[in-house]
């Protein structure tokens, strides 16, 4: 176990730095319910990310479920099969039918050119994912949404800090949902957030994440308990101080992989999708036929050497029993997603990944 390398390792500040935050919580006895750390983290994240309004959540999945509730999305929603299951699960939890559309071969993001053909009179929204933190074609998606009067909720679980030429990628769509899970670039142990464009929407989301309570005696909606607690919020404030350095170090890992794997026949490193500021949240490689070994053989070889990459996203969401019977889940409808699910391995990437381990990973792949 000690010598194994996993796809990620959470960045943690020194424990001593966290103690004063915990002491403050212990002294105030304010543990949750939108306490002072919760409010401070919302403000700090708005500033760091360059967005207007943020509602913190106890995890990203509840953020997705609540975002759909907040916009009263019903019927059918167009989404990607190439994601973590929570994307589609959030639709089922709202009684919404997912309609799967293929991804682009180069970015692995929802292909805007294929969205229109999937729209029906029941379609009310699109839920794209900025896969691996690479921005979707936000302008093309906005155009389609405008034409057909659809809402857009971005699953931005991978997109902390990512910017396009016009600023934060989180400003696109009606809402964007972040995850602060332990495996993410910025973590609060568990956590998440909805980025929203106006104060009124944030207020509705704040009610929804607190059972629908507006005041002591008024409940306006069948809300849920999605609040981030004070321990996680205070940890987030501390984490925020180190996040620029964490992303910088991830960037060094990224470039070392690219240089080391450049000349390996059959291995393709996924490029960016035009982002101006990246977060290097994942390092996916695609193992093509020319490599001479299948993706699964390489995956097993790496594991036998203690290197635990991950086949994100295999199986496709559409392969799971609750989705595979849908007409849009047919393989023939999703050739690019199916190819990616068969070819991708995400290699270990995290700020403290030692250079010699990284070189070992590169040499196993290049051997
Ligand atoms: C694309 C995507 N969506 C949603 C989630 C769910 O976020 P959480 O684990 O914070 O609930 C994750 C990851 O965990 C994810 O990768």
From TrEMBL:
Keywords of this entry: Pyridoxal phosphate
UniProt cross-references to SUPFAM superfamilies, sorted A to Z: PLP-dependent transferases
Organism: Sphaerotilus montanus
One of the protein's GO biological processes: polysaccharide biosynthetic process
A Pfam family it matches: DegT_DnrJ_EryC1
Residues the record lists as N6-(pyridoxal phosphate)lysine modifications: 184
Molecular function terms, GO-annotated: pyridoxal phosphate binding; transaminase activity
Similarity field: Belongs to the DegT/DnrJ/EryC1 family.
Catalytic-site annotation from UniProt: 184
Protein name: dTDP-4-amino-4,6-dideoxygalactose transaminase
């Amino acid at each position: 176990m000690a010598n194994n390398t996993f796809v990620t390792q959470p960045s943690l500040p020194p424990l001593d730095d966290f103690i004063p935050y915990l002491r403050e919580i212990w002294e105030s006895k304010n543990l949750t319910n939108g306490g002072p750390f919760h409010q401070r983290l919302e403000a700090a994240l708005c500033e760091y990310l360059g967005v207007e309004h943020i509602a913190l959540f106890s995890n990203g999945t509840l953020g997705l479920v609540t975002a759909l509730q907040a916009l009263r999305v019903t019927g059918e929603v167009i989404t990607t099969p190439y994601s973590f299951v929570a994307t589609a699960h959030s639709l089922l939890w709202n009684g919404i039918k997912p309609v799967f559309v293929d991804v682009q071969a180069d970015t692995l993001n929802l292909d805007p050119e294929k969205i229109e053909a999937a729209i029906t009179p029941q379609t009310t929204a699109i839920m794209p994912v900025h896969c691996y933190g690479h921005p979707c074609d936000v302008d093309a998606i906005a155009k389609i949404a405008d034409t057909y009067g659809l809402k857009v909720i971005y699953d931005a679980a991978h997109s902390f800090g990512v910017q396009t030429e016009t600023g934060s990628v989180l400003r696109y769509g009606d809402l964007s949902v972040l995850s602060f899970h332990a495996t993410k670039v910025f973590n609060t142990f568990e956590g998440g957030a909805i980025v929203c464009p106006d104060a009124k929407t944030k207020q509705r989301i704040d009610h929804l994440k607190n059972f629908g309570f507006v005041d002591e005696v008024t409940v306006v909606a069948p809300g849920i308990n999605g609040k981030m607690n004070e321990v996680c919020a205070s940890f987030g404030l501390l984490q925020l101080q180190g996040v620029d350095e964490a992303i910088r170090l991830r960037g060094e890992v990224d470039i070392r992989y690219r240089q080391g794997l450049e000349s390996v026949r059959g291995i393709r490193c996924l490029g960016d999708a035009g982002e101006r500021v990246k977060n290097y949240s994942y390092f996916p490689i695609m193992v093509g036929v020319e490599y001479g070994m299948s993706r699964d053989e390489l995956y097993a070889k790496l594991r036998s050497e203690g290197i635990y990459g991950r086949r994100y996203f295999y199986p496709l969401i559409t392969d799971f029993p609750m989705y595979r019977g849908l007409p849009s889940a047919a393989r023939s409808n999703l050739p690019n997603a199916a190819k990616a699910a068969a070819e991708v391995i995400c290699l270990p990437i995290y700020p403290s990944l030692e250079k010699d381990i990284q070189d070992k990973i590169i040499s196993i792949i290049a051997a």
